[in-house]
Amino acid sequence: MDAIVKNFPRTGQESGRPTQQEAEDAVRVLLRWAGDDPLREGLLDTPMRVAKAYRELFSGYEQSPEDVLGRTFEEVAGYDDMVLVRDIPFFSHCEHHVVPIIGKAHVAYLPEGRVLGLSKIARVVEIYGRRLQTQESMTAQIARAIDETLAPRGVAVMIEAEHMCMAMRGVQKQGSTTLTTTFTGAFKTDAAEQVRFMTMVRSR
Ligand SMILES: Nc1nc2c(ncn2[C@@H]2O[C@H](COP(=O)(O)OP(=O)(O)OP(=O)(O)O)[C@@H](O)[C@H]2O)c(=O)[nH]1
Ligand SMILES: [Zn+2]
Description:
Blueprint: H1 2-7, H2 20-34, H3 46-57, H4 65-69, E1 72-73, E2 83-94, E3 100-110, E4 115-116, H5 118-129, E5 132-133, H6 135-150, E6 154-163, H7 164-167, E7 178-183, H8 186-189, H9 191-202
GO molecular function: GTP binding; GTP cyclohydrolase I activity; zinc ion binding
Subunit structure: Toroid-shaped homodecamer, composed of two pentamers of five dimers. Homopolymer.
Enzyme class: hydrolase
């Protein structure tokens, strides 16, 4: 569990969180960089709003997946088959351009005695989504957090997302979807479990 915190710090403290004033000044610089005048009336409160919005959009640094995943229960009448929560919507931001990534996560695990509250799986997606990300890292982080805290027989995570940095700028290809997967335990070693996961994700 320590590894999660070490590799993905929960707060900006390690690199020194700037003051509100510093954040607002930085936004003013970017507004000028965009070509506008931060002193015109419509933009006067914008630095304050952007600083506030950043705290919300990147609130995942303040939260720990271990806290969320720590509460489990065992009374499920011996149920030990796959639990899949699919189509969990999320917004994230790419770490290269700080532009939105919009997508859905599908998360499954094979219980070993204990199960998670279903909402906790969506909360973990939310925690990692509200950080600067690559889709590959986010997929691996969700799988590892569940694997390390719950110790199930296996975890499968699939993310489907559109990257606005590919749609709104750069190569400008709208509508393309990137798929990433991470499998651990039985999902990694047993091809039939992977197929079952894929089939359940795709079945409507
Ligand atoms: N692997 C991966 N790449 C990403 C992700 N989000 C954005 N990228 C890519 O990161 C790359 C950064 O490439 P660079 O050449 O350094 O940056 P750039 O000049 O802005 O690239 P272009 O987007 O091609 O204009 C781009 O190819 C992006 O499409 C992601 O989640 N995973
Ligand atoms: Zn990007």
